Amino acid sequence: MRRMKKILLTGATGFIGKALTRHLSETDYEVRALIHPSSKSPDLPKGIPVEATVSGLNDIRGLQAALVGVDFVYHLASQEALGARGDLLETDIKGTRNLVQAAQESGVERFIYLSHLGADRASAYPVMTAKAIAEEYIRNSSLDYTILRAGIVYGPQDRFTTALAKMIQAIPLVFPIPDQGDTLLQPLWIEDLANILLWILDNPKTKRELFEIGGPEQLSFRDIVLTLLDVMDINRKLVPVSTPLIRFATMLADYLSLKIPSTIFWLDYLATNRTCSLNAIPHIFNLLPSHFAKRIEYLRPIAEGKSSS
Predict the structure, then answer these.
(1) For labelling alongside 26, which of 144, 172, 201, 303 has CA 20 to 30 A away?
(2) What's the pTM?
(3) SS3 content of the chain, % helix, strand, coil (to 5)
(4) Domain check: are 139 and 28 in the same one?
């Protein structure tokens, strides 16, 4: 009997990891989720058979054990969502280096890494620097890798549109935007990203390649907020606020552990344009990506004081 191929997935409890896990459950692959040691039960998708193995990315022996019998690795784990409390050095940089080393020793067939548009070792922004250094470890390895630099990803329970919608709902009359809100983004629908991640696994032409992808539109942050206001049927006056002031307020909130729907690292996305070719996904992956305004109906309940789902 032919053995089922096995996948190790890092970041399985995150927004993108959960979506990918759901998609993988509809395939013939076995999924093993690498779970960071914690006293809390892992927040894995309910009703989906997933093997969980516990190890930190700083534990080489734990990683070696987690990779036994594994054919493919999806590396999605990152500390960026934790803001100032996150440790990019330990997870995104050293953790990636350790995982790459263990994957090489284990004979993993494919290694797929999710990075960001704008990843650059010389970047002034910590997340982009960390992602670029992680990419270097992967590219310099003997692994058959695929690196995917994606635009900002959105969908139900994300940390972008859902966070913005909650802020819009919570702040009466006005809504602050960094400077004039002219920064261009290329929002990518979560289901499109999950499909692309699956497609990469089955396509040998993606081996040892780096791709930059985003949605079918380049939208200013101001236009994104206006689209949210329209979908939520809420009126707010957009008020330009200097980026340093917003950054200071966010850093202070992070330091004080205040529960605000944003982190300092997310502000890095708004510091400069995060775009790529509009034809990348149709040309490379033969997929027509979803338009932003047509996919954010899940935000309507937030305007009514309910949770999105």
Answers:
(1) 144
(2) 0.92
(3) 40, 20, 40
(4) yes
CA distance 68 to 150: 29
CATH classification at residue 130 = 3.40.50.720
Are residues 176 and 237 located together in one domain of the fold? yes
Is position 281 within any domain? no
Q: 208 and 143 share a domain?
A: yes
- Indicate whether 131 belongs to any domain: yes
Instruction: Quote the tokens at residue 175.
Output: 């809504």
What string of DSSP letters covers 245-260? HHHHHHHHHHHTT---
Q: How far apart are CA 225 and CA 164, in angstroms?
A: 8
CA dist list (Å): 141 to 81, 122, 202: 27, 21, 21
Torsional sign, CA 167, 85, 215, 158? negative
- Indicate whether 308 belongs to any domain: no
The per-residue pLDDT for range 2-48, each reduced to its tens digit, is 678 999 999 999 999 999 999 999 999 999 999 988 877 777 888 88
Range of the domain at 237: 161-184+217-272+290-303
What radius of gyration do the chain's Cα atoms show? 19
> In Å, what is the CA distance from 17 to each residue of 35, 45, 185, 209?
12, 9, 22, 21
